[in-house]
């Protein structure tokens, strides 16, 4: 009986294939009568699932003393600088998993030891906050920050910046950060301001045929008023952004300015008035336009008589004055007073037309010279 048992045992050992099997870092010596890696794994009760890494492959032929390595797939919940993700890895430890995922642990804050094993049956959670260099801009200063911070709020805390509910931050406080990022904090403020402001005087226009058509004359000067206004002023970092009127109080009512608008017929000089000082600052170009421009008979006469100078005085006898070289007696004959050269260009033209209507173009020596009349 003993001889038979020994003989049988020798046959088992002689016919089976010995292999070294390592599953997630634990190694055992195994024997199998199978021909492939899959047979050896089945003989040891090792179930291969999706994501598991088997070396050599499950279909490889067995050989005596072969090393078979199985790294099972494991679930990893990774929080990397605030970014959450679920990863699958065949690594054995936290450090190996981070290396596999390309995460450099140097200087980082890690929630587990790098040598801590990963649980093959349950999800392992790992939080990693890497060191970063950032810039904070607040209160007129630029502050460099080097810290293992995961969020905007943590960076601001490291920079010593307090943030109130009314402040504006360029990114949400809970937002993750990256190296090289710039974070701005803007201080907002709301104040009330009381000021006095002018109230523009309203303008009333009245038409009158006592002024030449298109001319204006102020009949009543009017006066601006004053009001007291309360504003709500919104500012960011001391710079005003909004201004909203809350209330007003009229302190001094404005007085209406009355302006007369002329409708007088230019062809009827007797129908309208021309103030003596009106147009005293009239330019040469305005005078040329007033008398009808090049080609008009009045233009030719004024050019010849005075070269468009309303203050002109005859150089030979000093008896004729203004644009149309009125003599004093002739000037008075058409209703003028004083020296014609002291009257406005408009009045001079008005009275020249009156003279022409009564006596024709022969009143001007220049008329025959320039072909008028």
From TrEMBL:
SUPFAM superfamilies linked: Lysozyme-like, NAD(P)-binding Rossmann-fold domains
Keyword Calcium: no
Keywords carried by this UniProt record: Hydrolase, Signal
An example Gene Ontology molecular-function term: hydrolase activity
Homology family: Belongs to the transglycosylase family. Rpf subfamily.
Keyword Nucleotide-binding found: no
G5 domain sequence ranges: 185-265
Protein name per Swiss-Prot or TrEMBL: Uncharacterized conserved protein YabE, contains G5 and tandem DUF348 domains
CDD domains: RPF
Pfam family, one: Transglycosylas
